[in-house]
Amino acid sequence: MRSVVLLLLGAQLAYAGTHSLRYFYTAVSRDIDFPEFTAVGLVDDGQFMYFDSNIMKAVPKTEWIRQNVGADYWDIQTQNLIGAHQVFKNNIQIAKERFNQSKGVHTFQRMYGCEWDDETTAINGIYRDGYDGEDFVTMDYKELRYISSVPQGVPTAQKWTNEEGNLEGWKNYLGTICVEWLQKYLQYGKSSLQKIVSPQVSLLQKNPSSPVTCHATGFYPSGVTISWMKNGREHHEDVDLGELLPNEDGTFQRTSTLSVTPEDWKKNQFSCVVEHQGKTVTETEDEIRTNNGDSVPIGIIVGALVAVVLLIVIGAAGYMLYKKKQGFKPVSGSDDGSNSSART
User: Fold this and answer.
1) 8 Å CB contact between 248 and 308
2) Which of 40, 122, 129, 175 has a CB 3.0–4.6 Å from the CB of 314, allowing a cystine?
């Protein structure tokens, strides 16, 4: 079998200076054995806090947040999220009525937060609502208005856009308060959040006729791109890019799968190009790792299992989340803005 060149390029990425603080809320109907409401907070895609309606308590998930905030911080987070739980219970019922649904398992989700570029100081607010994994209401941060791609969400988008207090509250939170807390968190977790760990790259294949997977794992931060080259030129056909997944140790993994015939492999030279921050590594493999001898690295299995749990908690389905807020008045002791409520 032809050798396949694995390239890890050290070119600085356009988003290398961008950091993010995001919250994911998920409410589910009572028809499954899962918490009615969960909340997860992430800095640069790494989880730092967690809450669900079973434990009814916000808890730290990293040592850096545990060491830098006191009991008052967690008390405020807990009270805010208890309030959000009650709002979301009502929201999921209203959404079921809107979509004319009376049975089955349904999800009512929200994602919101901010992005800050520490090089250009550019700020972007993020706000997406979703129902059953589909967009419901989204905020256009630049134009400061709500939009909806489904008829059931149009009345809510119009109502919230016309509520000046709602928009001004979110503008203040997303553009100022959220960024201030993000900068605090980055300072708190400087030693871990600002570390750079290069990915380990492998080519995996079940058998000679199976697709070939380029697997990058163990990298931090999460920004990575994986692409394919064919005889030195970019190749985009028959390529399937996998989701970014967390590893158990806080690093990340991602795959890109290329489907080509064995004859195509023999006649051409394919390269998997992985781009990450700050490092350049070139590796040549004489043989693709297969199930016939070399087993799939345990990191893939463990990472995938962790990812499944995390994605369920933060509301999988493309991180499309549902939010219900009105009269937004963030308090100084908490950055999540979850102390507000609204109805559709």
Assistant:
1) no
2) 40
Q: Single out the residue of 24, 20, 104 nearest to residue 322, CA to CA.
A: 24
Distance between CA atoms of residues 252 and 185, nearest Å: 20
Residue with tokens 């199976």: 210
Backbone φ, ψ for residue 18 (5° rounding): -95, 130
Altogether, the residues listed in the chain come to a count of 344
The pairing of beta strand 4-9 with beta strand 270-275: parallel
**Tens digits of per-residue pLDDT, 156-179?**
899 999 998 889 999 999 999 999
DSSP string spanning 184-232? HHHHHTHHHHT--BPPEEEEEESSTTS-EEEEEEEEBSS--EEEEEETT
Domains located in the chain, CATH noted: 4-13+195-310 (2.60.40.10), 18-192+313-319 (3.30.500.10)
Q: Which residue has the tokens 């207090």?
A: 165
d(CA 240, CA 259) in angstroms, rounded, equals 8
